[in-house]
Design a protein that fits this description.
Strand order of the largest sheet: 1-2
Strand content: 5-15%
Distance between the termini: 79 Å
CATH topology of the largest domain: Arc Repressor Mutant, subunit A
Structural class: mainly alpha
Oligomer: single chain
Number of helices: 16
Order of helices and strands: EEHHEHEEHHHEHHHHHHHHHH
Radius of gyration: 29 Å
Number of domains: 4
Shape: elongated
């Protein structure tokens, strides 16, 4: 019998244990012996590990008993599984922490999410600081059932922490992400753009992707953007450039006034009128707010992109 802090009593047939190998033919110890001796020598009080190691526990207990030592308490956690309910592995995608860092998941979001895989504090609390997790975590509230890893829920939680982060911190991490994409961002421009994308991104990588057009002139319209440009026609974008060229005070408010007047003169809906302008300026049909994007991009670069797309 194994007394497990999560599963209670786990029963094993003595006949199933039999003799087991603790030393290889070359004299090196197997995992069973090494782990048991290590637990004894390190004075371990608790062994907390995955449930896949539960079957080896009776053998380790026998070794510890033979050593004349007091065994630690054991707690076997449920495994994390994918959407197919199979144990999480590389075939479900990357499972390395470094991958999540590169994709722009904040540490506090990942820690919070992983803590909730198979554990809960109560029926309503979702967000915890690390200090709160340390204070409130209790093995008695760990579930027996496997926990499914849900990327969408992790992205949602990451979005929450992004919205809670300060502008200064977001500026730092988005700037770092842009540099990782071989760009040379101006931190002051990133800082000005953060309020425009904070609510639109669920990862830092997504924020960097939204702001990429500000820090490179190698902007190639994606398929949807190219279709929007083609639908509008070259004359439309040339006229948009001419209207914006006449703007004296290059601010979002004045840009908005001029573009709305242009849209009304064109007898088009704002969606149809602004989609090709957005596409030409940012290379995408999805971007930060248009007027503010054009203000940050600057007069010369905006006009150059509109004229290039309208050529």
């Amino acid at each position: 019998i194994v007394h497990d802090l999560i599963r209670g009593k786990a029963h094993f047939r003595a006949n199933d244990l039999r003799d087991f190998v603790i030393l290889r033919s070359d004299g090196t110890p197997t995992y069973l012996l090494a782990a048991a001796v290590d637990d004894v020598q390190m004075h371990m009080t608790h062994v907390i590990r995955g449930e896949d190691l539960l079957p080896s526990t009776p053998r380790q207990l026998k070794i510890i008993e033979a050593l004349g030592a007091e065994p630690p308490a054991y707690a076997h956690l449920p495994l994390v599984v994918g959407a197919d309910r199979q144990p999480l592995s590389k075939r479900h995608g990357s499972v390395a922490v470094e991958w999540f860092k590169e994709r722009g998941f904040l540490p506090e979001a990942l820690v919070n999410y992983l803590a909730l895989l198979g554990w809960s504090y109560d029926e309503s609390t979702t967000f915890f600081s690390r200090e709160e997790l340390v204070d409130r975590f209790d093995l008695s509230r760990v579930s027996h059932n496997p926990a499914a890893f849900d990327m969408q829920k992790l992205e949602w939680m990451n979005g929450h922490y992004i919205r809670e982060a300060t502008d200064t911190r977001l500026t730092e991490v988005v700037t770092e992400a842009l540099r990782g994409g071989a760009l040379v961002p101006d931190p002051s421009v990133v800082a000005a753009a953060i309020p425009l994308v904070r609510e639109r991104m669920s990862t830092i990588e997504e924020g960097a992707r939204l702001l990429r057009f500000l820090f490179t002139d190698d902007v190639v319209p994606d398929e949807k953007a190219a279709n929007a440009i083609a639908k509008a026609g070259v004359g439309f974008l040339r006229e948009a450039a001419s209207r914006l060229e006449a703007v004296e005070d290059w601010t979002a408010e004045e840009i908005k006034r001029v573009l709305i007047l242009f849209q009304e003169d064109s007898h088009m809906s704002r969606r149809d009128a602004f989609a090709p302008i957005r596409a030409a300026v940012t290379g995408s049909t999805v971007s930060p707010p248009l007027y503010e994007s054009i203000e940050l991009l600057g007069r010369d670069r905006t006009l150059a992109r509109l004229r290039s797309a309208g050529a």
